[in-house]
Design brief:
The complex is a heterodimer of chains A (about 450) and B (about 230). Chain A is α+β, with helices and mostly antiparallel strands and about 450 residues long. Chain A contains 14 helices and eleven strands. In chain A, strand 3 and strand 4 form a beta hairpin. Classes of the chains: A alpha+beta (about 450), B alpha/beta (about 230).
Chain lengths: ~450, ~230
Amino acid sequence: MYQWILPTRYILKRRITLLAIAAVALCVFIVVVVMTVMNGLVEEFRGKNHRFIGDCVVSTESLVGFAYADEFLAQLDRQEYIEGASPVVRGFGLMTQPGAEWNMGVEIWGLNLRRHVEATDFAQTLFYGKPNPTEAFVPSYNPSLPGCIIGIDMMPGRRHQDGTYSHPPQAPQYEMIVSGFPLTPKGGLARAGTDLVNTLHVYFSDDSHSGLVKIDGRVVYLPYATAQELFGMAGTVPRTNAVHIRFRSTVGLEEGCRQVRDLWSEFALSCKGREYANLLEEVRVQSWIENRRGAIAPMEKEQTMMIFLFLMLGVITVFIIFVVFYMIISHKSKDIGVLRCLGVSSAGVLAMVLIFASLVGIIGGGIGIAGGWAFLAKVNVIEDWLYQTRGWQVWNRSVYAIGEIPNQVHASVLAVIGISTLVACWLGALIPALQAARKQPVETLRVGML
Amino acid sequence: MSVILTTTGVTKSYRMGPNILEVLRGVDFAVEAGDFVAMVGASGSGKSTFLHILGALDNPDKGDVVFEGQNIARLGRGRLNEYRNRSVGFVFQFYHLLDELDVVENTVLPAMVTSGVLGWPARRGPARQRAIELLRRFGLGERLRHKPYQLSGGERQRVSIARALMNRPTLLLADEPTGNLDSKTGNDILNVLEGLNREGQTILLVTHDDRIARRAHRIVRLADGRMVADRMQ
């Protein structure tokens, strides 16, 4: 019982143990806050990517695209595990306005909205067309005009400092000129020797806010058939660049992707010998995670680096615990000698010091977790207050695509932090504990021995 | 009376830089149950070292220490801890009470060690009762909740004696128990020890003061690491 009573008293009576508790609490507080924000950022970013492209993407890197997508879509539509599948044309072009002296490079996506809203959450990114997304390419001010949807960050002045966007009550009438480079199935320019490009006049019908900076800042969406024409993909053997797929909720990602891969392999095999069948060889079937790895991986790497940095912070905590326990053990060597004289074993002394370390870890960790939790609960309020009263904006919404600081504390993260705190305290206290356990009673009590 | 402890040819030396200091040079000694023995000698005569060896706080270089038929130099660590906890009780010159514990908690400490974490709840009541009885007997009934730093030197030493007696040890080892006290308080402590001895407690007391030694029944004198005299009073 002394193993519990003495550490409890040391915590209450020795101010230096409060220092150890404070160090642990501070470290845990910082880790809880940073890990929660970082995890939230990564999770939200992953979620946005997932919602934007669906569960699985059948695509080719080549701008030429691949043929027979309609036949493959028909096969997909017959599969029980498929919720929706949507063909997408992707290409690059230029955008300008009539009379303007500027133009900008854009990415152009051709969408079949009826299919695309079933395969992805694209409908949720729209503003004017959200209630009726399949009509989003129809300009409300003149339904007879050819419409286009543009990424919200391509519209200057829409984004406010606080991360919100302003929209006029009705879609404004903007005319835009979009130019694309049509390619032959062999990859050559379709109109070589003439004026090379296809040019369209389109009218703003809606904007899309996916929350993905690189998408919202450079993608223009056109009707699928229009985009096919623009890039020379219509014709006798129409081509497409990708098929986005959503699985039914009961189907796992890996399982669904495996089935689509099998289906694609069979389909590609069945097309052998047909015209442009060689284009099918470049097609890959990827889960959304694989498809968006290029966008997600840097953020995950950043998260890994943060974890590594906080491991180093943990090392500092271990060192602080070591120093504090070393001082306590040195100061309390007489007590340890007395305990050994009273029959306490080395293991008993070791257990006592480790229980002491555990109490420091539990109290410090508890304070840190509670403090971190409380801070995170109010972090957005605090941040807003700082911005409104002092003009300080810690979380610049014009830089981050996420409007609010992520503050959802996950029990699993807290559990990992709690266990790590205990382990750090044990590690820090281990050497002093072993030193205490090895002390011989006579070493500490020898007074006038000779 | 039966012999409870014997030593045969106990030697102990320490390395002091290039020199080896022989502290004990073959001490043969025996204590009978109920004895009150005073071991006297000048500073450096080896009496405290000898007491530490008897209490298994230190090991002899050579020789045997046999307590109730068991050679304690050959006991394993667990049995040695048990020996320190149950067979002997220590009283130190500087009391060595734990500052964070109150008087009762300091006194019950040996019982806590004996019972362990799981056994303590069952033993806590009787142990506290014995501790309080001992403390009241030594005139500390009003000081039960006090911390060591709130007590006088004599009171601390009486708590130290109560703690040493907590587990009813066969042998009480006292190392200069009055060495840090004024003469009146020291006399009170000796009265306590005499009273315990009258009740049958075997006591071995180490002192450099002949006047204190004369309170014992038997005086053993150490000089230069050897026992040079052993006489009954």
